[in-house]
Amino acid sequence: MHLIWFALKNIRGAGFRSLAIFLAVMGVAGFLLATTLVITGAQYSLNAGLKRLGADILVVPAGAETKVESALLMGKPTSVWMPKTKLQDVANIPGVETVSPQLYLSSLYGASCCSVSEMFMVVYDPATDFTLTPWLEKNLGRALDKGEVVGGTYISVVPGEEYITLYGYNLTLKGNLGATGTGIDQTLFMTLETAEAMSQSSYSTAVQPLRVAPDEISTIMVKVAPRADAHQVALQILRNTEGMVPIESPNLFGAFRTQMSGLLWGFFAITVTIWALAMVLIGLIFSMAANERRREMAVLRAVGATRGFIFRSVLTEAVLLAISGAVVGIAIASVGLYIFRDMLAGSLKMPFLSPSISSFLGLFGAGVALATVTVTLAALLPAVRMSRQELAVAMRE
Questions:
Q1: CA–CA separation, 231 and 331 (whole Å)
Q2: What is the pTM of this model?
Q3: How far apart, in whole angstroms, are the C-alpha atoms of residue 353 and residue 337?
């Protein structure tokens, strides 16, 4: 405790030097955690979105791959159409166990149901669906009836209202899916029966009617047989169907994965550069302090302080400044990222899902530990020089 008290006294006595080290550690640690959380949150979001889709292969019309990925990733409504007859073509491919169609629709601009201006709507077939049905069975205990819907985490009923009203048709929200950070969070899921009823109603109750063609679909969700190779099945779909492109689940969001990889390496390069510069800066500050405190350390030696005490006191100063700077920097970065996460995700055009508490605490601890080790290493050489200086020489200077 005496050593810590002595280190704190030295920190207070050298305010400018201590502040410079504190700010350097705070900035670098905060930047490092923020970039790590962005990449980690994007990866969590991607994994959660793929798990929610639940399909081994997604079949889309040729040329619509980017539009579909953008709709699923960022929740941007899109118009994608292909004949429903394509469903049987895919079902006939060897290795395909189950196929289920989905139809993409969108709300009118400025929908009052959610926190976004336009809402992405997905129509599914309950008779063949294997993506949403497991969630319904677990949480609702049954399939959706006519007029009932399930929404992502951003979908809600307007306060004071009983229904979500779209195209003049009242929909009953039966539950919300877990957050994924992707466009699924602002997506409304309904059966074809509900979509057709809403379409019929829209011609007399809405400013703009909703068109739902019974012979058109947007995508085909494919579940591969247990012993089949998903990649080979995808190749067969590509070869044996016309105007259709299969996207394997691991390859979904390919453009986003490339973007995320580029951001990761960019952030990594910037972080390493900043961290190296901060380490050099901190080392220089401690070296300057070693020269300034030569007489002070000589006096301590003269009154009985050992070389080990002086060495440990300098490192203790470094550790205290590193821990305090890292904790403050990481805390500020965490709060800022939490407040501006939606703005950040929108500007970077990437989804974001906050990591779990345990993952965050792990990153927090790792950031503090890294800052402590870095600052300690930067202060190591000056601490050795202070502890090994000759008493008589230092006293004469």
A1: 44
A2: 0.67
A3: 11
DSSP string for residues in 110-153: T-TTBSSSS-EEEEE-TTT--SSHHHHHHHTSSPPPTTEEEE-T
Question: Order of strands, edge to edge, in the sheet holding 187-191?
Answer: 164-166, 169-176, 148-151, 187-191, 120-124, 96-106, 219-224, 57-61, 244-248
CA 100 to chain centre: 29
What distance in Å separates the CA atoms of residue 388 and residue 370, rounded to the nearest whole number?
Answer: 27
Amino acid at 336: G
Beta bridge partners of 223: 98
Q: Enumerate helices (H) and strands (E) in the chain, giving the number of each.
A: 13, 11
pLDDT per residue as tens digits for the range 244-275: 888 887 766 656 666 666 766 777 788 778 77
Collapse the DSSP code of 219 into the 3-class scheme (helix H, G, I; strand E, B; otherwise coil) and give the result.
Answer: strand
Domain ranges of the chain: 2-46+257-396, 63-242
pLDDT tens digit string along 169-199?
889 999 888 877 777 788 889 998 999 898 8
Three-class DSSP labels, 331-384:
HHHHHHHHHCHHHHHHHHCCCCCCCCHHHHHHHHHHHHHHHHHHHHHHHHHHHH
Residues 175, 150 contacting (CB under 8 angstroms)? yes
Q: Which helix (H) or strand (E) holds 98?
A: strand 96-106
Closest-CA residue to 211 (of 219, 221, 220, 203):
203
